[in-house]
Design a protein that fits this description.
The chain has about 80 residues and is an all-alpha fold. Helices cover about 60% and strands about 0% of the residues. It starts with a helix and ends with a helix.
């Protein structure tokens, strides 16, 4: 790497383990087209169904509650 590369610091790429289920904001492409061109092309434009997201949230809460109750039962026994 050259000296110029270190002037702004060499940063790790901002990656996430799971892609977003809510999609991305479409105006972002017109606002920052030159700087985010590569990042936006790799992002998914599709959004998961809102009904599925709502159900997923409630299912997660229910499984946490069941786990809590199971731990309490195991501790008292």
């Amino acid at each position: 790497m050259s000296r110029k590369a270190h002037r702004n610091g060499i940063k790790k790429p901002k990656t996430h383990r799971y892609p977003s289920t809510r999609g991305w904001f479409p105006r972002l492409t017109t606002m920052f087209r030159s700087t985010l061109c590569l990042r936006i092309s790799s992002m998914s434009n599709e959004q998961v169904d809102p009904k599925f997201m709502r159900n997923q949230r409630y299912a997660k809460h229910g499984s946490e509650r069941a786990l809590r109750e199971a731990r309490a039962a195991a501790q008292s026994a």
